[in-house]
Amino acid sequence: MPTKTKTAKVKKDVKTPKTEVAKSPVVAKPEALDFLGAMKFILEGKRVRRKEWPAIEYACLDAGRIKIFKGSYNAWIIGDGDYLAKDWELVK
User: Fold this and answer.
1) Full-prediction pTM beyond 0.85?
2) What are the residue ranges spanned by the domains of the chain?
3) pLDDT tens-digit series, residues 1-35
4) DSSP state letters, the chain
């Protein structure tokens, strides 16, 4: 004779508590920004710099050309160190 087994009904409407993440006003920075990543930000209209550069220096897009700012805009001669560097960062 077949036996009937009762299956327990699981409540599907049980709500799990949601944890809210506070939004930070700080722009998230990649840990290691390489040259290509820096160029993407420049083409988006943002300013970037290398950590080893003085604080007032940065690279940006000016009148359709990538230039470096050192108190005034100058042509940027990109060297091997810039290509290979992984210390690029965004400038606010």
Assistant:
1) no
2) 35-91
3) 666 666 556 555 556 556 555 453 335 455 669 99
4) -PPP-PPPPPPS-PPPPPPPPPPPSSPP--SSB-HHHHHHHHHTT-EEEETTS-TT-EEEEETTEEEEESSSEEE----HHHHH---EEEE-
